Amino acid sequence: MQIFITLQGYERLKMNILISNDDGIAANGIRVLTEALSKKHNVYVVAPDRERSAAGHSLTLHTPLRVEELDSKFGAKRVWVTTGTPGDCVKIAINAILSKEEQPDIVISGINHGPNLGADILYSGTVSCAMEGAMLGFPSIAVSLATMHAEYEDFKFSAEFVLSLIEKLHDFKFPPKSILNVNIPLLNEEDIAGIAITELGRKMFTDDYEKRTDPRGKVYYWMAGELINEPADAPTDLAAVRNNKISITPVTYEMTRHDTLSELNKILCDGTNCQWY
Fold it and tell me: How does residue 269 score in pLDDT terms, banded at 50, 70 and 90?
C-alpha cells in the first residue's frame, strides 16, 4: 500500500518551509524565494556557504560538516550555512538542526540560476536537494529559472509563482519517493503561456568537447555541447519551456526496473536457483 504525503501544515495558519539550494546562501534566487514565502509562512534556510552547482546527489562522509547560524535575513525565521553539499543541507537540517516544532511541512529547493530539464536533472544539486527531502518523507519541490540571468529582479515572478503553487497543492497527494520539478521561463507574467504538466525530455545538450592547447602546450578539454531540439508539441519539460510555459514534472528516485525483474530472474536464476557460478 502506498502512503501518500500531503501538506499537513495547512491545518495551521502558517506552514513551516525548509529552503535550500545549490547556488549558495548569497544567491539571488534563494533570497527572493525566502522573501516571498516568508510573507505567509515560517521559513527556515539551510544552504551551502558557496556555490555547489552540478553536485548531484552527493553527501559529505569523510570530512567534518560545519554549520553556522547567521543573523536572520530575507524574512526567514532562522538561517544557517554549511560547508556541505545541497543534499547535506537538507539531511542535516531535518535530522540535526531544526527542532521538533521547526520540522518542515514542505522542502523547497531553489530558485536555481538556470534550468534543470530533461535527463540533466541527474547532475543537478537543486533537484538533489528536493530528492533528499522526499527520501526523508517530506513533500518536496525543486524550482529553477530557465535562464542564466541571475539578477535580483529576474526571480520575483518565479518566487510569487511558488507561493501560489504551494497553496494550490493543499490537497495534492505527493507520491512516495517523488518530487515536483518546476522550471519557469524568464518572462513577464503576461507573457507566460500557461502551465504544462510534463514528462522529462532528453538531455538538453549534446556531449561534445573541444580539445584545446594552453599557452604552455598542454592539452585541455572544454565542454561545448549544442542544444538539442525537440518537437514543439512534445509532452516534455524542454518543449514546454521553449513554448513559454511553466513546466511541472513529477519525478521519482525509484530506479528499480520492475518490468525486467522476472525476465532477468528467469535467464540468470532459472526461476529458483541463482547459484550458477
Answer: confident
